[in-house]
Amino acid sequence: EFVENSSQLMGIDIPVANPSPLVESEESSFDFMLDANLKEISFSLETGAIRAHNSNNFRLSLVGFGAALEGILIDYLSSIENDVLDSAETSAQVLEGFNQSEMPRRPETWRFATLLNVTNNVDASVRIINPSQSLRTWRNYIHPGVVIQDYIPEGELGPESGQALHMLAQVKRDLSRRQ
Q1: Which positions ≥6 away from 167 have C-beta within 8 Å?
Q2: Rounded to an integer, what distance in angstroms lies between the CA atom of residue 50 and that of residue 52?
Q3: Over the stretch 119-174, which tens digit does the pLDDT of each residue have?
Q4: For residue 106, what are the β-bridge partners?
Q5: Exposure winner among 8, 95, 103, 166, fewest CB in 10 A?
Q6: Using CA atoms, how far apart are residues 65 and 99, in angstroms rounded to an integer?
Q7: What backbone phi and psi angles, to 5 degrees, belong to 103?
Q8: Global confidence as pTM
Q9: 108 with 76: CB under 8 angstroms?
C-alpha cells in the first residue's frame, strides 16, 4: 500500500523476483571433462547462465547453457575413438552438410547442430549421452530474426531456462558415470 501511494515511486515498475532461482554448481561437477580448458570454459558458462537466470535475463541464460553444453560435447566427442566418431559422422550424414569451417574428426570446429547430431548418432553400444535438441532451439531465442517469428517475451522464458539447466545436469551426470 505504501508503494502504491508513494509519490516517489509512482509510475515505476517494481521488478518481480524470479520465482524459480537456480543454485550454482560446484566446479567439481565438471570433473568428468578431460580437457582442462574446456572444463573451465563450460563451468564459467554454466555459472554465468545461472546468474543471468537469477537476474531474469533468460535469453542470456539460454545462450550460456547452450554454450556450456557445446563445450561438454566437444570434450566428449574428442575423447571417443576415431572409428566410432567416423561412424557417427556418417550416420548423422554431416559429412555432406559440413560448412566450410567444419572439419571431419575436429569437433571443436563444428556448429552446435553438428555436435548434437553426431553425439546422438554415436553407436548405441558405446553412447553415454543422448542430449535433446531443445536447448539448441531455445538458444536461438536470441536471434532477432528467429525470435520475432514466434515471439516469446523475455519474462516468459524462465521455464525454458530452468529446463536448460536440468538438461545440462543430466548430461553432466551421465558423463560422470563413465569414469
Answers
A1: 65, 69, 131, 132, 134, 135
A2: 5
A3: 999 998 888 998 988 988 888 888 899 889 989 999 999 999 999 999 999 999 99
A4: 103
A5: 8
A6: 24
A7: -125, 140
A8: 0.86
A9: no
